[in-house]
Amino acid sequence: MNNSILSIQPLSFPWQTSDPFLFCAFHHDNYPKGNGQMGPTASLSGRNLGSDFAGKDGWSMYHGQTVPGFPAHPHRGFETVTIAEKGLVDHSDSLGAAGRFGNGDVQWMTAGKGVQHAEMFPLLNEAEDNPLVLFQIWLNLPKANKMVKPHFAMLWHEDIPVFTHTDEQGNRTKVNVINGKVGDSTSPAPAPDSWAANPENEVAIWTMVLSPNAEWQLPTASAGVNRSLYFYAGEDMEIDGSTVKKGNVIKVDATKATTLKNGSGESKLLMLQGKPIGELVAQYGPFVMNDNAEIQQAMNEYQNTQFGGWPWPKHDHTHEKSRGRFALHADGREEVK
């Protein structure tokens, strides 16, 4: 058999990635009903508020104290691709841009020379639970683009193409093509200064849903391209004849066609692929540069300028409860869904 598997490793937190990606944070929180102020109805006693990552009762507040999420914090030198598979995210940033997105939407933000943003998880449903399933992927920027102007874009789920494959037994595999191309399905354009903007870098970000017993063969990519499969939901499947359980990352040789054969339940995977940037990486928290001197410069500039300051009333800013999905850009342009 043409076995493409290079390694199989248990997933850590955050998920381990390969160049050009830095890591992927996966959040699966079974939040309770909302309390009318977009926080949880449940008591917050016993939680380390301000830094709650323990997963008590199946959910965390993270750095939020009343609404779960991540109040204002800085970034420089890379990009965030945030896939809100389920639940909602309230975005606010130092450029004056804002948005509410979720339930399949994706936000692509180039931090570039520096931006602050807040990502809060408003619990709008007061009659039922508010589950959240979210990936935040950190995609590196090459040295030439680390100090570009920040950029923020929404990829609404209505605009993300879905490739569907039906096997000989009638079982289906669906691929959400967030970046890249599968068959005739081509993603929306990535951020303009992204490593993904050059098709020669073969960056692909796909989420895959395999129905029970579905079988599909991934298309190949060029030599030297890194490709990883993150099996995050399901029971088990065969990958090139090897049985793999959920909770593992499978690195494969992208030059070989990889055959996925699902087990008896629905399975979900994330695929990250790309040509490596191949440059030195220096990282200190939210800053990713090429050497320690650049990290020190980033820290000094943030302390002196706050990357433009914070134009919102609170660091854990949330939008009006009544608002639906929207994106307000720094130039004043607004998208409403």
TrEMBL record:
One MF term in the entry's GO annotations: metal ion binding
CDD domains registered for this protein in UniProt: cupin_pirin_N
InterPro entries: Pirin, Pirin_C_dom, Pirin_N_dom, RmlC-like_jellyroll, RmlC_Cupin_sf
Pfam family, one: Pirin
Record key words, sorted: Iron, Metal-binding
Cofactor mode of binding and number, as noted: Binds 1 Fe cation per subunit.
Gene3D superfamilies: Jelly Rolls
Domain Pirin N-terminal: 64-139
Family to which the UniProt record says this protein belongs: Belongs to the pirin family.
Name of this chain's protein: Pirin
